[in-house]
Amino acid sequence: MQADAVVLLGAGNMEVPPTWIRPEALIIHCEPALKPGVATCVAFDLINKQPHLSFLFWKTKSDHNYMLCCVFWVSDIEISRAQTPKPVDQLAEEIGLLPEELEAYGRNKAKVQLSLLDRLHSQPDGNYVLVAGITPTPLGEGKSTVTIGLVQALSAHLKLNSFACLRQPSQGPTFGVKGGAAGGGYAQVIPMEEFNLHLTGDIHAITAANNLVAAAIDARMLHEATQSDKALFNRLVPTVNGVRTFSPIQISRLRRLGISKTEPTSLTPQEVSAFVRLDLDPSKITWQRVLDTNDRFLRKITVGQASTEKGQIRETGFDIAVASEIMAILALSDSLKDMKDRLAHMVVGTSRSGGPVTAEDLGVSGAVAVLMKDAIKPTLMQTLEGTPVFVHAGPFANIAHGNSSVLADKLALKLVGRDGFVVTEAGFGADIGMEKFFNIKCRASGLRPNVVVLVATVRALKMHGGGPNVSLAHQKNIVLFYLCGCHSNLKKQIQIAHLFGVPVVVALNVFKTDTRAEIDLVCQIAKTCGASDAVPCHHWSQGGRGCLELAQAVKEATRRPSNFQFLYPTEKIRTIAQKVYGANDMELSPEAKSKIDYYNQQGYGSLPICMAKTHLSLSHMADKKGAPTGFILPIRDIRASVGAGFIYPLVGTMSTMPGLPTRPCFYDIDLDPDTEEITGLF
């Protein structure tokens, strides 16, 4: 605001926000290849060679002493590369890990052994903070950046032990619309390329494990359709070196069938038939293949068309990998044994007699556990300011439960100690990710949060107040776009958090186009809507320093009592529809009704609910902004993730395989073959 001239380096055609400069200041665009010193000289030379430009200065600066400001437009990936991460073994030592508890994956990241929980079992847990958000625009409102900025403020500036716990990003959004999930600006996990691409291979392990189960299903159906009981038995329990024995997983199946025998030759023909015949109903197989790519053309496919499959043709489809039940199990397990048990209990379909068929019945759950044995360990990384981050699991919040792993949170809470802070993030809006954090993740973990940080942005509140869906342009109608937006969506999301008895601090993620009047008004209204505090955050441009006010507000809020409670004991779907979304009621399709009856018969009625719903609205209609009321929530179908431990209704037209837009992010992502540097990733 004090500069007479602003030199923009590498800004392209981007306009400078009017709040950044004086009205009479000169703006000079320079080529991005110029260095700062050269750009300054070029600017002065340009001023002195063009009298009409010089006049703008000379009329106010008679002594020819100019104040000139150079502004550099730097991408997230350039900021990430400008900081050299500390070696991961140094980071591990700083946070109290022993060398034998670390499995390094290169220089910048490492898996952490679960034995740490045993070593620190008597250590008191730290403060538990959840970052959620208002209903977002399609570009997101910055929950990841707020999470990272907050822990940078707590650790690097307030010198308090703190940990961020984040989900691993899926390649779907990374190459689709939203981009990566490492944060942005000066609030990032680094190196961001490693964070956004592959990481330590956990999602690939989930993909392999999920598709192994799918292959086992189709292979078993083929073999049962083409072989006699005796032939099946001889192949399932072969004679090796003159000895025939059941494997441990086959013994488990015999026990579930009520057969206590362990000698293969002692089974009766009826027992042999019961053992070898899963008799899966092809029309009631619920398990699908997965791929970590947005590919709409795989939503419905036909398999078994080759002649070698002998007419075993059926319709199936693909989900995105992070929607796999195995991902949910990874996120909710609290030990390797717990994960193995949950994998065994995954229901893949129904037999023709109406009974559930599990991964253990298929004989595949042990092999799946082997594929997942390294994935269960959280990955240690760091922020731009060198503070620790656990990256683990990555379920979406709209089609899964949308939270990082229980194990990452538990490990972090022990490492930070009684006075420390663990900041974990729930996906999308509070009506989806936060509700599932409370009702699903907290049930599984036994952990209770101290405070919720609710992220809001001016642009999203404008949208909810009646503005365009996504607009970075400045809107001057404060009454329309703020009072409406704040009193509808922001107020509703604060109320949802209060349903669970947890205090709320609103973090306003400030963008360069926001005015002081807008920022002050949003914070004021948030407090009148029930927030314990509401503060502006400048972490994107200032890092942890820009989140100090939020850190102090969170620290203060954790001193207040948290009267945590679950939302529902019974009538779960209707309770969520009415109390969280604001619906008048729900409407079950005939298929959903029959599924409810079936799941109740199988004893799954007590499981919590994981709603699969659009994240772009509190309702099932993505174009309904603000806090809509008076609608009926349609439940199209209901599926069971028995191993993960929840039932998930499909709301409206929700799909578990996203599609690519006309212009995906991958148009901008490339590799320099000389330097091996990645460009275009954000």
From TrEMBL:
> Which protein family is named in the record?
In the C-terminal section; belongs to the formate--tetrahydrofolate ligase family. In the N-terminal section; belongs to the tetrahydrofolate dehydrogenase/cyclohydrolase family.
Q: How does it assemble?
A: Homodimer.
Q: What is this protein called?
A: formate--tetrahydrofolate ligase
A Pfam family of the record is FTHFS
Mind listing the GO molecular function terms for this protein?
ATP binding; formate-tetrahydrofolate ligase activity
* Example GO biological process: tetrahydrofolate interconversion
Q: In which pathway does it act?
A: One-carbon metabolism; tetrahydrofolate interconversion
Highest taxon in the source lineage: Eukaryota
Q: Which UniProt keywords apply?
A: ATP-binding, Ligase, Nucleotide-binding, One-carbon metabolism
Q: Which E.C. number(s) belong to this protein? A: 6.3.4.3
Question: What InterPro entries does this protein's entry cite?
Answer: Formate_THF_ligase, Formate_THF_ligase_CS, P-loop_NTPase
What Gene Ontology terms describe where this protein resides (cellular component)?
Answer: cytoplasm
